[in-house]
Design a protein that fits this description.
By secondary structure, the protein is mainly α. Helix content is 62%, strand content 7%. The protein is built from 8 helices and 3 strands.
Length: 187
């Protein structure tokens, strides 16, 4: 984002679609929002963090194409110092309510987007995200393995019960045949 602003004398104005086109060549494809609506939501959500990184936003206030103009400019030092960064460059700060692994992964993804947009080093955030995704993959694999073992144990129990029933039925059939058989002839 800083590079974009440097190329526009410290300020840029346009729609979210225009901004998405402007940053498309500067970010990896997987780091880009899907569309301009997602980009607008990301900007609104991370406005305080961008301000802390030295980027001030003026969100659209009216509808229609002319009213959907975003203004992005380099913020003064006083503005940047007044808001603490939610995600410092080397860490992903825990957010209340993010005690589940999927929530932690989503927080790390948001931090990665923020780092990329703000032009900060994203390697630490990528490392955190990769670690969380690896942990999630291992948990999913362990849950699948446990479910498979439980299914095999249930099937073994069913097979054992079926064998017991078959044995009991065979013994009962033998007893019925013996009771129905004619008595042996006297010799």
């Amino acid at each position: 984002m800083h590079a974009l602003l440097t190329g526009h004398a410290g300020a840029w104005s346009g729609t979210a679609s225009d901004l998405l086109e402007a940053i498309a060549g500067r970010l990896p494809a997987d780091a880009l929002p899907v569309d301009s609506t997602c980009l607008s939501g990301l900007l609104r959500r991370d406005e305080a963090d961008l301000l802390a990184a030295g980027i001030a936003l003026e969100a659209p206030t009216a509808g229609g194409r002319d009213g959907r103009q975003w203004t992005i400019r380099v913020a003064g030092d006083a503005a940047a110092a007044s808001v603490p960064a939610a995600f410092p460059p080397a860490t992903v700060a825990p957010t209340p309510g993010t005690d589940t692994l999927p929530a932690q992964i989503e927080a790390a993804r948001s931090a990665l987007h923020l780092a990329l947009i703000a032009g900060r080093d994203s390697r630490p955030t990528r490392t955190v995200l990769a670690t969380l995704q690896d942990r999630q993959a291992r948990i999913i694999a362990a849950e699948a393995d446990a479910a498979d073992r439980a299914a095999r144990a249930r099937q073994a129990a069913v097979d054992d019960r079926a064998a017991t029933i078959a044995s009991e039925a065979a013994a009962g059939l033998t007893a019925v045949r013996a009771s129905l058989a004619p008595p042996p002839a006297p010799t």
